[in-house]
Amino acid sequence: MSNALITGASSGIGFSTARRLAQRGHQVLLLSYDEPELLQACADLGAQAIPVLCDLAVPEQVDGLWQRLEETYGPIHILINNAGVGHHGELADTDMATMRRLFEANFSAAANLCGQAMRAMTTRGRGHILNLTSASARRSLALIGAYGASKAALHGLTQTLRLEAAGTGVAVGEVLPISVTTPFFARAGYRPRGLTQTPEKVAEQILLCLDKGEAERTTHWPTAFGFVLDALFPNLVARLLSSRYRAERRART
Length: 253
Prior knowledge:
The protein is an alpha/beta fold. It is 53% helix and 15% strand. The protein is built from 10 helices and 7 strands. A 7-stranded parallel β-sheet has the order 3-2-1-4-5-6-7, sandwiched between helices. Helix 1 crosses helix 8, helix 5 runs parallel beside helix 6 (145-164) and helix 9 packs across helix 10. It is globular.
């Protein structure tokens, strides 16, 4: 039985992914800062689920976490960095304490775990690291700039890590979902605009990315097509999005 560590796993995408991996016979280590929700999630999944109580926004709790877990539960072969914190508001109104909190939880903790995992996995010559970023990592929209910036940083780190892992036996992948119907938005204080997907749909894409060893997988093909247009015509896309936001701002006033 191999071990998989999933962050932000007490609900939403992380929980759905943990359930799918448990069904495949993996022992799943569910990481979350919400102890009651975490314990309930593990109870729902059964004996193959192990609770890992950790606040990713506290660096001291993340430092050395991989070694502590492997000493207790044995080698971890899969790392899925899924945890994320959101924020809604224009950048001019976003204080730096909020910005730092988002980067600590969404980027720094994931980067720390990636480094810890790489050191252990390369020694064994096998492993899989998968980072959940966001469509906003490629083109962030108004009012989610802090979140988009933190996910863009993780996207860049993942690209570098993938190159550095070449030939080590460690695969590095990334899944870029659109908005997902999870408690994430309620905690961030806003509702998603436009299309949304279910956690189960994204979990399905995560498993496909793991199975195929893909570098990147976008969970919504029209969004993937939008990335192509953005790469080819960035100035046109910028003008269209700016025009759209100006109209939305006028409608709110």
